[in-house]
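Whether sequence alone determines local backbone shape is best considered at the level of individual chains. The sequence in question and its structure tokens are set out directly beneath this paragraph.

***
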Amino acid sequence: MIIRSFRQVAARSSHNRFSLRRPLHESTGLRNSPEMNESPRINQVGIQYLSNQLHKKVFPTTEVDDYVKPKHPELLEMAKDHLQANDLLGKKTQITDPININHFPDLVGKTLDEHFYKLGQNSSEPYLSMARNFLSPKSSIPPIPSQDEWIMQPGWTRYTQNEEPEQVPYPLEDELVFDVEVLYKVKKFPIIATCASSKAWYGWVSPVLLEANDRWKKTIDYNHLIPMNCAKQPKLIVGYNISYDRARILEEYNIKRSKAFFLDAMAMHVAISGICSRQRPKWQKFNKAQAKAAEAEAEAEAEQEREEEEQEDDDYDPAISIQEDPWLLTGAPNSLANVAKFHCGVEMNKSDREFFASEDPRVIVKNFNLLMNYCAHDVDATFKVSKKLLPDFFAKVPHPVSFAALKHLGSLILPTSTKWKRYIESAEACYDANRAEVNDTLKKLAFDLIQFIEKKDPKLRPEYESDPWLSQLNWDLKKGRFKKDGTPYKRNAFLTGYPEWYRDLWGSISPAGTQMNLTLKTRITPLLLKLKWENYPLFWTDTEGWCFKVPFDEQVLADLFTKNYTRAELTPEEADEVHDKLYEDGKSYVLFKVPHPDGPNKRCTSVLSKNYMRYFDDGTLTSEYDYAKKILKLNNEASYWMGNRNRIMDQFVVYNKEGKNKFFDTKKEGQEHKDMGIIIPNLASMGTITRRATENTWLTASNAKRNRIGSELKALIEAPEGYCFIGADVDSEELWIASLVGDSMLGIHGGSALGWMTLEGEKSQGTDLHSKTASILGISRNDAKVFNYGRIYGAGITFATRLLKQFNGNLSDTKADEIAQKLYASTKGMTQNPRSLGSKKIYYGGSESIMFNALEAIAQQPEPKTPVLGASITDALNAKNLKKNTYMTSRVNWTIQSSGVDYLHLLIVSMEYLIEKYGVDARLAITVHDELRYLVKEEDKYMAALLLQISNLWTRAMFCEQLGIKEVPQSCAFFSEVDIDHVLRKEVGMDCVTPSHPDPIPHGESLNINQLLEKTGNGEILNCNPKLMTLRTRKYEPRVPVIQTLRSGWTEQARIQLVKLQTSINKEEWIKNLRELNRIIRTYVTDEQKEILTKWHDDRVKENSRHVVYKRDRKKIKSKKEENKAVEDYDLEVKPLEQNSGGKGEKTGSRAKRSKKEVIEKQVELMQEESTMNENTIVGVKDGRSAHALKKGVIDKPTQPSLLSVVETNDESKSQSQEKSSQDSVQATEAATTAVNPPMPSPSFSNVDIHRKPPLQQPLEAPSSTTTPHHYTRSRAFSSKMGFARKVSYHTSTSHLYQAYLKWHRREGMSDVSNCGGTRSNQLMVDSDRKCYCCDRFETRYRSRRRQC
């Protein structure tokens, strides 16, 4: 690898093509490569692109040197200025050998979009057709058999109408809805199951139920799985949370992937109508209020007294909530009962499921028919829900890749071995020993304090009154009851004669007195350990939690306030209660709060949690006893197992057992893997609104740590002998996606500061994102990662301030807020809300401003979609369903994370295609958000690793293509490393040594792209006569990239200027760029708008009094000599400046000091002049000539017909049509306005079309004879800013329309029409309005002279 700075390489280059300063490496792969002398392709900001060979393979319709000639040079200059402002331009970048791969596979199509469309279609079939047929609107399943019809016989029984039930080995049809029930407290194996097809119902019964009735049977074998005949026969199996049911299917426990497609109705609901975590509490409150309202309506006559709490709930009005939050009617939580009610109006009774909580299978036998009926109703509800959701799902998630990926996410497998049992035993033993040591130490402390009672020796009585910790305990002794003769009653209170604090330790676990409940979580434990904060004793208060007790001293208090400690504020009642303890021996004390990780407003309730471990290390938290720190470390050691123990022990592990399952196709292989086990993870393929997969154990498992019991969990997943795991982590996946969105606005990789730092930033140079943030905040680089990802996901300054306080407790709130403000000013940037852009918030001046503007633009769309695969946001977060609460953070987070899901889906589908094409024995084992692992045959490991790199390159290229940059940076084209390992772990070099696993695990193999190419002969391994794939798909139809639809409605000039606006580095530059943007908005008309204008004109060409005026740049006329020149275009609706009053001209508009009478007289005069003008007017657009110029002979006669023309009329035709025109003018113009200017949002950066070419700047011909070439003889108040003129940036004036306008004002009694005076040309401001009149659909705006930016 050669590392060179961009300046070094550029210094030796010529003609924008760069060459290396010294020969390339003589590597094995490159030595024989014909491209060994190839120069790296480096863009104008120092980012290296793919080699010539790979570029041609990935973008076959482009040229390798297209990047040298940017389409918009002005955007490139903006990018350079932006990087320079962030001190990044010219910084060192990595220039490496161009990577070439021999026999690189071609795309299936001309573009990557076509390529992935065909791969997705091919992968989806035949399941896509099966789903559409089985769940079509006209489809149905037979009625549920009556409750008495169910037969308790082992295996499958088929139930059809008008026929006797028959026993079958498996369901005969290929499309099924399926549900399983389990005695989950006993075993994880199935007990009963039902399924339905379009022809019949099926019931499955475990032999367990028959064995349970046999009273002579001492042991029951629960090991029975459900056959479905899907090993080689394609099956569509629909269910709700289907992965739970899949884990009970026999054919799924095989090293080869079955032919079943598991379609999860819950996943479809989440993607369509799921709600985010922030919405869930409001939905629950709304649902509760609805239920109460329904109950009150049903029992309207019954009157009940309600408690205060219930009365408060009654104040909640669901109707008001719906008005404020319409999303409440468009989303629901994920349970089947909620979803069936929400989508289908089906009320489900789930009370019978309590039978499955029994530990006795005879309960199931006794209620067999009832429970089979219950299971069947779940199947029926699932079918109705799926039938309703499927078309909505395809509308929300239309790309075939998104559907095809669900097949693989529903077929995951985790192989393990009998080591699993030993792991559980070892972890439990370590945990028990750990707990025993901690508990014994604490119990000894408690026993020592009551020895004076046990031994009845007053000398052993502790001096608790003067002890700052023990004095907080309740030392009142429980008095016994005695008879008159002084003998105690036989049944006295437990621990009579002992202190109350000690008695409480024994009474909290039932039955009382059987076990002492003293752990690190017990409230009195910090007092028994005599803990100190800042060397002052801890003190408990109910109001403020744990505090520390400080003697009153001004200097001491000043020091503590300097360290930003907060003084405790007690309630009057509690202050009275602790008064004596704060005033002892003539001394007074002050309480300060122990800081909480979430800020000073929270109270600390446990100083022995892992969050406070660092305070032990730095000496802030200490103890009177040396073993206190050891106890905390022991607790920290057990924390992982304590939190995950139940979930780990709840895993359903099926072991290889002949006669019960078939892990391998041959008996020999099965015998070779006797110790093998398989876990099927309970994964929801789309478990969150971002469509991320969820699973509560494997997707959240941490890496092995030396001081965490049981943390070696992932390493228990072992590839069977002869197989290995191949996988990789996508490097900075979501950060790269976010930066690419920003780069796409500038049209070049690395054009934005965030994009450059993501692609080329180096930790050693301090130019990567995390180092930059760390330098701003004054924290470590690792801590800075939390800030960066939180900010990109939409977290605000409050989040940053809280984190800063956590990382540096000495920071004051003011200082933390100041630092956070500085961070956000340098990253997100400053904000403005210009009215000309719809008053939407726009960031500018920061390294990430462009990216955040783009992400929020996507989130604010009426139907937000992911930029690559076009998946839509859930209805509950759709902008049209949000009013009071916008949930902007969740919506921005959705944009990033859902795009990350698109990335994973593209990677999976392309990998499937390559595995089949090259005949590799591999299957997807597990995915964890941005990482994935394949289970691969040992001999195919290097081939699979190379195919994974190719899949990643295709996926990166697809993202780049859809975002408008047909180049891929070489630094991110490939995984940094591909891991080849025999166990599941984060890194192949981890030993996985823990307290419960002291033996290290042998390391695996990790290869970067160059090392992998050496292993594979620089790609020669691909020269193996790959299978010729027959992709039978529907015809591909090119689609408009989603990112382009966000930019529609803007001209190219406006879009470029909008980007420049966002790169403004200060307020002055912002104002300058905004003014220029407003000028461009006024000046240019898009092709689309011209077409609308042309159509409108053709329909109304006979309306000869209408004049279409094209708004152009206007310049002041300084002399009459210049007035005769035809080289300038003017706004023909603005009155010319008079050459009097010292050349200042006549003031017009709202600033002119004229009486209402003068204004009306002037308007009538102007109207008369216009009527004369209309007789001889011809307006031309396309040829760029003005009538005034033609009249003077300056310009030759046009050689091409004009785009728009108005036919010249004579007096006779005018007199015949004038009466009708005057009657119909208003209605006709209103119709035209409705057509030209439909209701649309204000222009914003979110709807700019980068591919739309700017229209030619074609001037209009000026009116002849009675008017000057640069003004209309009408008030601007009427015609300058009518509704469609505001939108499409041209003017329309009609004398008849103006007459109708005046009549309408007079009829309505509007006397202030006289204010409608002319306005100076330079007063036409898009973003400032002072007054507004509306006449039907026409809007007139008065503009103030000064712009408010």
Observations:
- The first helix runs from residue 6 to 11.
- The CA atoms of residues 328 and 800 lie 31 Å apart.
- The two ends are 50 Å apart (CA to CA).
- The first strand starts at residue 155 and ends at 159.
